[in-house]
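Pipeline run #58 for the internal structure catalog. This entry was flagged by the ingest filter as a single-chain record with no existing model, so it goes straight to prediction. Upstream metadata was stripped on purpose; only the residue string is passed forward. Reviewer on rotation: M.T. Logging verbosity set to normal.
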Amino acid sequence: MSVGLEGEPIDRATVNAWEDNDSRAAVEQTGRRKLVIAALWTEVCLCFPTLDALRDGYEVYPIIDAVEGTSSEAHDLATRRMAQVGARPISWVQLICELQRDWQRKDTVGEFANIFFAGN
């Protein structure tokens, strides 16, 4: 399952979201070149679209602790494979902390705290 521009699910049959026309079009319509991505299985659902998006010139940030492999070895190998070709693995905590940056950002600190403290 992918998510479109308005947050609506995009039902797809492919394991590689980058090969699904609707999923890829939703990404392209944003005009953004940085992707934050999570998936079900690291070595398939995360790795495949990450490799393809990197090849197409996107900066990709796979959220490594929001995905699991079919084994810990498969997860680790896929994570290394993505990093070898330019992906920038990140944890969900690091991601939201980088987005918030500082407690002084009052307009987002409340929602940040709700997400952060609910997840820890």
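catalog note: The longest helix spans residues 42-55.
catalog note: The CA atoms of residues 54 and 86 lie 7 Å apart.
status: ready for reviewer M.T.
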